[in-house]
Amino acid sequence: MTAPSPARPTTARQVADRYVDAVCDLDPIVATSLGARPGDDRLPDVSPAGLAAEADLARATLAELDRVQAADPALDDDPVERRCARLLRERLGAELAVHEAGEGFRSLNNLFSPLHAVRQVFMLMPAATEEDWSVLARRLARVPEAYRGYRETLAEGARRGLLVAPRQVRTVLAQLDEWSSGPFFGSFVATGPEVLQSELAAAARAADEAVAEVRDFLRDEYAPRTEGTPDAVGRDRYAVAARRWTGSDLGAGRGLEEAYAWGWAEHRRILAEQRVEAERVHPGATPLEAMRRLSLEGPAVEGVEAIRERLQQMMDQAIEALDGTHFDLAEPVKRVEAMIAPPGSAAAPYYTRPAQDFSRPGRTWLPTLGRTRFPLWDLVSIWYHEGVPGHHLQLAQWVHVSGQLSTYQASLGSVGANVEGWALYAERLMDELGYFADPGERLGFLDAQQLRSVRVVIDIGMHLGLPVPDDAEGVLAEHRGRPWTPELARAFLGGHSGAEVAFLDSELVRYLGLPGQAISYKLGERAWRDGRAAAQRARGAGFDLKAWHMAALSQGSLGLDDLAGELALL
Fold first, then answer.
1. Model pLDDT for residues 448-483, shown as the tens digit of each residue
2. How many angstroms separate the CA atoms of 8 and 349, rounded?
3. Which are the contacts of 403, defined by CB distance < 8 A and separation ≥ 6?
4. What pLDDT is attached to residue 5?
5. Taking the mean position of all CA atoms in its chain, how far away is CA 222?
6. Is the peptide bond before 183 cis (omega within 30 degrees of 0)?
7. CB-based contact 521:503 (threshold 8 Å)
8. Entry pTM
9. This protein's superkingdom (predicted)?
């Protein structure tokens, strides 16, 4: 006897969740990130065959969605079904556009690549019991195979002429050197149970050797092929990438030029505010001078564990203050953990979402970059962004309501501009609520806002070769009307950010290696603020901000083509 086939989906949400299950079959890292299939010790196939399988799944899912919608057009009358169908169709269309452009064959950057995903999954896996460590050991043993498949993909990309710029290769090589210096996997298994140490150590040695093999391949075979590959990707590739991160076809018409001009206007607006705040920090100081004084002389925390505890305290206090006043938080959402990022991470702090059953909490991660002293002026706003009320409240709330939506809308379907836009909105909300009364901390908030505005300008400017605006000042003054270059972008970034040199260098590589990702923050924030303003106009005196927040956080993911409009209806 054969097992009966599962019933065919009859709603968009069923199509979407069947797709999640199928993705978990192809990519077990996704299952781990969701907290599903805890005993699964596989790693994804990131070879060319694996890329082809992912594309085939996307096409088949779109065909099934067509069938379901044609069979029952009334499904669109349900707002949850409508949102889910639009999200699934847009996301899969964006993924297929990326696949058809061959981007999977040159997925090499300092933050989001198969190389990093394979390492990161071990930070997400449970490690409390002997059985947990047994699963970890079996998955560790599969790292060499996964990395061999990744090398095959990059080699095929090189054969097709689909290459990244040398700057990306050099940066990843430096990361791999740091991973090997530990070595990462050998250090990771050192805390495992004694009874499994022999198995763990052997698997870790093989995994660390596989890291070294990727490093040698990149250095000796791949890097020479990349010479002459430009940093900028050009309009066509940028438009495909920007849709992936924003859920909007900004490449149509003058969408990218409009975003560039708006980003520049935001830069100028925020700069005026920064100058006022810098005067409060230190009379007569420029914003950059005031930020440097704060870094050297302002309040700071000494010690890695001490800063982790401080960041945890900050999030716990924010939850206590905001719950019941501006949000209504379910008990599982109130749990979030501050963590220290492993060595060899990119420089920017980040967040990992909770498991679908909350067995693994949401976590914020701070890369230390070898530091032991941590000025606070620029960390407060960032932790409102990464933790509470930023990423954690949104993504944990999605998990909480996923049963009312679909797993897809609360996980795989997330759109960068929605998620990063909410987190930037959250920083602005805390400013509205008076949480930056200290001039130094408010300058830190403005510095974070300025960074996101500069990102829009230089990301679009570099990749499309747009001219520097005619009212540019400082390091840009003599380059007005000339096209942006990475060197000019780095100088401009350094002139308008209080961050350390290592962070800014990492940021520039990130923008060049992940075109379109950097613009998602400010464009997403604009959509969130526009949606709230429209809802306020529609409701008038009856507008309830707390109720709006919870309704907005409970509708799941949306792309920028839909976000502001749906928020206006809440």
1. 999 999 999 999 999 999 999 999 999 999 999 999
2. 42
3. none
4. 59
5. 27
6. yes
7. no
8. 0.93
9. Bacteria
